[in-house]
Specification:
Distance between the termini: 73 Å
Strand order of the largest sheet: 2-3-4-1-5-6
Number of strands: 6
Largest sheet: 6 strands, antiparallel
Radius of gyration: 23 Å
Number of helices: 3
Low-confidence stretches: 16-20
Mean pLDDT: 83
Shape: elongated
Structural class: alpha+beta
Strand content: 15-25%
Number of domains: 1
Helix content: 40-55%
Length: 109
């Protein structure tokens, strides 16, 4: 019994400080948003299993699948038209990214 108490005390002494140094992770960003160049008449679309709610030129989804942002952007452009701003799972597109994304309409891919 005494060995057990010593072992528990030793574990508490070494594990306690280490446990106090653990910092919480930053909240995961699992949603997406976009701004269309031209307002849509659709109030929502279902895209890759996620519901995107749209109001005029802004669409948002609180949770989207983990996939490459450029792939999602290009597929959404095919569905909704040109995009002027785009964010996906914490990644916000630059002007160059948006040009590449919207280029899918020009290339006709």
């Amino acid at each position: 019994m005494r060995s057990l108490i010593i072992a528990v005390a030793a574990l508490a002494a070494t594990g306690g400080p280490a446990m106090s140094e653990i910092k919480p992770h930053a909240p995961r960003q699992e949603g997406g948003w976009l701004t269309l160049q031209t307002p849509t008449t659709q109030d929502h679309i279902v895209f890759d299993g996620a519901v995107w709610r749209c109001k005029a030129d802004i669409c948002r989804s609180p949770q989207v699948k983990a996939m490459p942002p450029m792939r999602s952007c290009r597929r959404l452009v095919r569905e909704l038209g040109p995009i002027s701003s785009f964010g996906f799972r914490g990644v916000t597109f630059s002007e160059a990214d948006l040009a590449a994304c919207n280029g899918v309409l020009v290339a006709g891919r």
